[in-house]
Amino acid sequence: MISTSFYTEDRYLLRGQLFCTEKAIQGRVIVAGATGVPQAFYRRFAQFASEQGFETLTFDYRGIGQSKPETLEGFEMNLLDWGKQDLAAAVQFMSKDDAPLFIVGHSYGGHAFGLLPNHQKVTGAYIFGTGAGWHGYMPLFEQVKVLTMWNIILPFLTWWKGYCAWNLLGMGEDLPKNVFKQWRYWCRFRHYFFDDPTMDGIEKLFQSVQTPMVAANALDDLWAMPESRDAFIQHYSNAPLTRLDLSPKLLGGKIGHMGYFRKNAIPLWQASLDWFTAINKENKAI
Predict the structure, then answer these.
(1) Spatial distance between the Cα atoms of 18 and 8, rounded to a whole number of angstroms
(2) What torsion do the CA atoms of 245, 249, 254, 256 make, to the nearest 10 degrees?
(3) Which of 85, 76, 81 is nearest to 6 (CA)?
(4) How open is the CA angle 241-245-247, to the nearest 5 degrees?
(5) Which pairs from 260-265 meet CB under 8 Å and 24+ separation?
(6) Residues 148/152/154/159 CA torsion (nearest 10 deg)
(7) Strands, DSSP E only, in the chain?
(8) pLDDT, tens only, 54-74
(9) Beta carbons of 279 and 124 less than 8 angstroms apart
(10) 130, 229 in Cβ contact below 8 A?
(11) Each residue of 4-45: pLDDT tens digit?
């Protein structure tokens, strides 16, 4: 594992970890993480992938983890920056001619892929737990919890701190104020930002993607049920797309929204790498 850093097009410095492989390289993988989840959470997957011949990059989006400023109070950014700028810079950094490039996304990572200006450099994307965010797709008890969080708890914490103090709830990294506001607003819509009248034209970005994709969602992922996934990923309308509904039994009875990358998730990781390998073989056969 090597610490690394790279700049975005708008000159923001991002920090990451590069997990090199000692085997003949099969491909390169970028982990596009979830909202407020630091890159360290994905280290087990990255290590596993590197041991299978896939050089793997984890990184923190701007405002998160090792890529955050000294204080989030007053820090300005757009939630779309994580895809249009940060993930795009990671793609540029990892793209080389000697091996294909793949993306493994988690939750927001499945949003970020469609925002890329350079998605043509990516050979395949395997995304876990991506959904539209609307509470109506969730079970009733989860709806109550989420609406309480959106409308009472997080607005108070954000007003008090000047940023979204997500960490106080034990749910991840603190979030820049604008990230919270945009995330909360778009989660009011059945199809996330595609239903926002001020975001007219964003669907064209997703329609331009022709990269093969797999969208895997656990049946017990209360934040991204398969119906929620389908409401979002339908906008990848020109990409060869495979939907997978994952039984919690695959991992001993529980996956949830975060279990895709916990230490017992090796069967899911292996499935993604096997899919990448299969794409490699198909491309070489052409």
Answers:
(1) 17
(2) 0
(3) 85
(4) 155
(5) 260/106, 260/128, 260/129, 260/216, 260/218, 261/41, 261/42, 261/44, 261/45, 261/106, 261/128, 262/44, 263/44, 265/45
(6) 180
(7) 2-7, 13-19, 27-32, 54-59, 101-106, 124-128, 213-218, 241-246
(8) 999 999 999 999 999 999 988
(9) yes
(10) yes
(11) 999 999 999 999 999 999 988 999 999 999 999 999 999 999
So what's the pLDDT on residue 281? 75
* Long-range CB contacts for residues 137-146, cutoff 8 Å, separation at least 24: 137/225, 137/227, 137/228, 137/231, 138/222, 138/223, 138/225, 138/228, 139/222, 142/222, 142/223, 146/223
The reported pLDDT for the residue numbered 137 is 96
**Which residues contact residue 13 at a Cβ distance below 8 angstroms, ignoring those fewer than 6 apart?**
5, 6, 7, 67
Residues 73, 77, 83, 86, CA torsion sign: negative
Q: What distance in Å separates the CA atoms of residue 151 and residue 168, rounded to the nearest whole number?
A: 16
Pairing assessment for the beta strands 54-59 and 13-19 based on DSSP bridges: antiparallel
CA–CA gap between residue 90 and residue 14 (Å, rounded): 9
Task: List the structure tokens of 59.
Answer: 């990184």
Q: Which residue has the tokens 């797999």?
A: 214
**Helix, strand, coil in percent for the chain, rounding step 5:** 45, 20, 35
- Residue 5 CB coordination number (10 Å): 12
Average pLDDT, the chain: 94
pLDDT tens digit sequence for 77-126: 999 999 999 999 999 999 998 899 999 999 999 999 999 999 999 999 99
